[in-house]
Amino acid sequence: MTTSPTPTLPTPDAISAAHDRIAGYARRTPLLQADADLVPGVPVTFKLEFLQQSGSFKGRGAFNNLLSREVPAAGVAAASGGNHGAAVALAAGRLGHRARIFVPEISSPVKIAAIRSHGAEAVVGGARYAEAQAACDRYAAESGAMLVHPYDTAPTMAGAGTVAKEWEEDQARMGLPALDTVLVAVGGGGLISGVATWWAGRVKVVGVEPEGSRCLHAALAAGEPVDVPVESIAADSLGARRVGSLVFDVVKDKVSGVTLVGDDAIREAQLRLWRQWRIASEPGGAAALAALTSGAYKPARGERVGVLLCGGNVDPASLA
Fold first, then answer.
1. pLDDT confidence of residue 313
2. Which of 158, 232, 263, 265 could form a disulfide with 213 if both were Cys (CB 3.0 to 4.6 A apart)?
3. Among 157, 141, 151, 109, which Cα is nearest to 240's?
4. Measured distance CA(311)–CA(48) in Å, rounded
5. Phi, psi of 128 (to 5 degrees)
6. How does strand 121-124 pair with strand 146-147?
7. Residue 88 contacts residue 97 (beta carbons within 8 Å)
8. Residues 158 and 111 in one domain
9. pLDDT, position 243
10. Both 143 and 159 in a single domain?
11. What is the CATH number of the domain that holds 126?
């Protein structure tokens, strides 16, 4: 399928077009009003994006890429800690394309199994994500396969931004007041780029990163993308060593800041989601909630806060 050229950076119009394009492929995930005792005096709404077919928001960007670009006979290639790979594998399988996914050694066996369950080939491409990306880039250059980047392209960011458009529409449809603030976990930055593009100037968008994997926080402090060490329980989904250059161009003017959370806080939020709501979330999916429950982000009384629960590819045994 061919379309008109995609702009370098995502726009609200591009997000609307992506939303129409992926309708019928990506699920419209529900909202959940959190219990009043979560943060007393602060109404909190969860967006249950882990209910996408592949277990994370990544399906939105994957389908938008494959439906808006010409896919060659060699198929598609992607590097991923797991979630993006599962999403690309799902989209390729649904649309009849070959897929080869490169994953690092730190990837969860649950996520590698998900990639293979959708018919894609999963190849271990190094110890960390950056090495898997390098292996993927070499394969795409040699084979002619279409590279589907997990975060640093306009189609990926616009696809991710559809979650914000959908969320805003459903808040209104349910008769809920508009949100004041949205907390979004950050890996490479594709999700927060799309969300911030949609809500720019209307809703405060706050990034949440693990203390041990803070590429956006470091980039904003340095004024440009920089390499950071990666060591966190959420590294398989929030473990990018360097924020994308296009991502940085978007978020430097549209994001209200980045909050850092420790691994203990992430783990406690993950367990609280399971104990209180029976939500099975991976650590990266629980990071945004950890900013609230740990006090790393302190909302004002009455502030209407949205928490994006972005991924649920987790071994249930780890929640016992």
1. 82
2. 232
3. 151
4. 9
5. -125, 170
6. unpaired
7. no
8. no
9. 93
10. no
11. 3.40.50.1100
Identify the residue whose tokens are 């060593």.
241
The neighbour count for residue 45, using CB atoms within 10 Å, is 21
Reported as a single tens digit per residue, the pLDDT across 123-154 is 988 888 788 889 999 999 999 999 999 899 99
Q: How far, in whole angstroms, is CA 137 from its chain's centroid?
A: 21
| Residues contacting residue 25 through CB under 8 Å, at least 6 positions apart | 59, 63, 67, 91, 94
With left for phi above 0 and alpha for psi between -120 and 50, is residue 243 left, alpha or beta? beta
Ranges assigned E (strand) in the chain: 31-33, 44-48, 76-79, 99-103, 121-124, 146-147, 181-185, 204-210, 257-261, 305-309
b/e 67-92 (16+ beta carbons within 10 angstroms → b):
bbbebeebbbbbbbbbbbbbbbbbbb
Q: Helices marked H in 69-123 — which ranges?
A: 83-95, 109-117
Q: Which residue has the tokens 């060591």?
A: 231
- Pick the closest to residue 158 from 63, 61, 57 (CA basis): 61
315/218 same-domain check? yes
- Residue 160 tokens read as 């991710």
Amino acid type, 8: T
Q: What is the largest CA-CA distance in the chain?
A: 57
Tokens of 60: 């939105």
Looking at residue 165, its amino acid is K
> Angle at CA 245, nearest 5°, toward 288 and 75?
90
Residues of the chain predicted below pLDDT 70: 1-7
